[in-house]
Structures are given as C-alpha cells and as structure tokens.
Amino acid sequence: MADDLLSQTDIDSLLQSLNVDSDDDDLGGDSGGGGNKYKIKMYDFKRQTRFAKDQLRTLQHIHENFTRAITTFFSTSLRYIVNMRIASQDQITYEEYIRSVDNPSLLCIFNLGTLEGKAIFEMNLELSFAILDRLLGGQGDSKQEKRKLSDIEEAVLNKIMLRILQELNEAWSHVVPLEPQFSQFESNPSFTQIVPPNDMVLLITFELSINNVEGIMNLCIPYFALEPIASKLSASQFYMVQRSEAVEDHEELIDGMVRRMDEDVKILLGKSELTYNELLNIQVGDVVKLDSKPNDELRILVGDKVKFKGLPGTSGKNMAVTITHVLSREDEINER
Q: Of the CATH numbers 3.40.1550.10, 3.40.718.10, 3.10.180.10, 3.20.20.60, which one belongs to the domain with range 53-248?
C-alpha cells in the first residue's frame, strides 16, 4: 500500500499538468486537432466603435461628394490638375488625433451650426504653402521651413477655408443643413481642446496632390455632435432622401420645360351652318350670321381644348380679349 501513495512532488506535477490542459481547452486548443477552435479578438474598451457599418458607408458617400467638389474648386482656382481622395475613415479618441498632428500646423476650428459643438479641418503645412504660393502668383512651391502662418497668409487662406466649409455644407445637405461657421485658425494642436481627450471622434483623412506637391487634410468631427442625427445616417434613410430630392428636381425640370413651350391660342367668335350651295355662291361682302351675340362670352381655345372664356375688345391698335372665366375640368368636358 505504501507504494500506491503519491509524494508531494507527484501531486504538484499532476496539478500543474491539469492547469495546462484547462488553459488549452479555454483557448480552443486540442492535442488531437479534433476540437472546436475559437478566434480570440482583442477589444479595447477605450476605443469603442460608435457608428454602424451602414452609417460609415453613408459618411463615406457624403465625403466622397465633398471630395469631388473640392477637387473641382482647387483645379479652377489654382489652374493645376488636382487629385483628391479619401485615404481613411477612423473612429479614434480625440487625444489620439491631437497627438498625431504636427506642431506647427494649420488647424481651422469651426462651429457645426445646426449641430452642437465644434469640429476641426486640418491642412498639411506643405499643402498650405503650395496653395499660398500659387494664389500669390508663384508656381506652387512648398519648400519652406515649418513655421506658423503670418496674419496675411491666414487672411488669404481664410477665403479658401470659407469655400471648403461651403462645400462641406453642400455635401451634408442631403442629411442635415450643417451650416458650418468659421471660428479661428490655430497652429498649436494643444490649444484646440474642442472635446475631452477620451471622447470619440470621426476622423476622415484626405490625400491631396497639387502639381508635384502631395499632402493630407483631416476632418475631425466629435461623435457627440453626430449622435442626434445618427438615425439619418442609415443607408436606407439617406438614399430615400436622395430619391425624393431627385423626384423634386425632375418635377421642376419638367415644369420649366412645359412653361417654355409654345402653344396656339384661338378665339372662337361663333359658329354658323351653311348649305353647300351657299358656300359655293359666297362672295366678298356677304354677311355670315353667327350663333353668338355681341355681348356673349367667347370661347378661348388652347390647342383644341376650350380653357377660358372672355369678351372681345381692343388694346391699342390690336384686337384683344379680356379673360372673364377660367374653366374647371368639369366645365371643359361640358364645352366639348
């Protein structure tokens, strides 16, 4: 019996082997390869995703429209071929974004108008100098040391930023009238605390190339500002609004085309019945008696349909008619 007893060393070894097997089972491991295996994905509770996939697709579509508008604006303003695309769209904390911004940089802080809070539009300094050089008559040279922009340079770029915000408002108009309002320029990212550091923000990064100069622009919008309109960012809601606006546009187009059409308008003075013999013998100066009296309303035809009634008269040296009655649909049927 003494040989069947386990020593303390044997017991410790056995417990250790059981713990190892238990850990392997929890991870989905199986020495035989026949057990279920689970993929473990790390989750960072500090970076919670706030937007659903269809909402992110809607945001992507909105800013693709914005990208096309800005490309056209820069191409015509700078008279260079300009290419711009969305490089990425991320949900990160505001602290992560601020840490990624160079100092100095060009940060445009603007109010979100109809939404609560502020947002940031950041432009790479290299791009800023290239745009300034081109607007001031140069070739778009960006080879300058990194420095804060002067007051004159900020005044020139202020007009560019106002146009950018205008195009941003237009891109968002299908969802909400954003009406962004320029607030100020800032060069030090540490001074742009628009939200607490741990708040989530939507960061859209654009890649822009002007002639031979390439750089990035970032649009940073706090999540809490977009939260009240999150339901409007669903794909079904967004495309439904677009379809209704498209129908309205077509209606206006058709209405404008109809209003420009030419149509004959005839005044029917009266009718008379003549025999074939009377028609064959009619001469100049003969009087044909009509079925209407001098004070009777005349029928006014648009095309071949009676639409109005009126009284004959003159306007200057021309014959004219005064509209006295607009026929309803029922009256039109009775006049046929």
A: 3.40.1550.10
Contact 126, 213 (CB under 8 A): yes
Q: Cα dist. 52→96, 98, 201, 293 in Å?
A: 21, 24, 14, 76
Tens of pLDDT, residues 185-208: 999 998 888 999 888 999 999 999
Using the Cα atoms of residue 220, residue 223, residue 225 and residue 227 in order, give the sign of their dihedral.
positive
Most distant pair of Cα atoms in the chain: their distance: 152
Q: Is the pTM of this model over 0.70?
A: no
Q: How many whole angstroms from its chain centre is CA 181?
A: 17
d(C-alpha 151, C-alpha 134), whole Å: 18
SS3 for 157-176 is HHHHHHHHHHHHHHHHCCCC
Could you tell me the residue ranges of all domains in the chain?
53-248, 265-335
The residue assigned the tokens 């191409």 is 75
